[in-house]
TrEMBL record:
The keyword NAD does not apply. This is Response regulator receiver domain-containing protein. Residues 3-119 form the Response regulatory domain. Keywords: Phosphoprotein. GO terms for biological process: phosphorelay signal transduction system. The modification 4-aspartylphosphate is found at residue 52. Gene3D superfamilies: 3.40.50.2300. It comes from the Bacteria. SUPFAM superfamilies: CheY-like (SSF52172).
Amino acid sequence: MAKILLAEDEEVLRMLVVDTLEDEGHEIDEACDGEEAIKLIKQNDYDLILLDYMMPIYTGLEVIQYIRQILEKKDVKIMMLSTKSQQADQQRVLEAGANYFMAKPYSPLELVKQIEAILNGEDA
């Protein structure tokens, strides 16, 4: 069981992902915007952080930069979830400090498969 933060502003998608990951036995915290995500990251240690790119207040990219530069949490794994899936967008996300990128739309089963690979130390 892993402790995972999901930061996603689309409520229906967030609920679907949370339900899917909880069914797999993971403990999930939820954030509906970048500000709430940062607050939770300051208070908790996570095995994996899932971030939507386009969120209110702070974007997923800004949250990654905050995690890596201000909080200096270098070990936490971060996956960006985004419809912004052009090569330049993906490169920007990885350069900011994300470990993984998954393009939307994705199936919940595909997401679970990727998460399990990450948590097991496999290349996702």
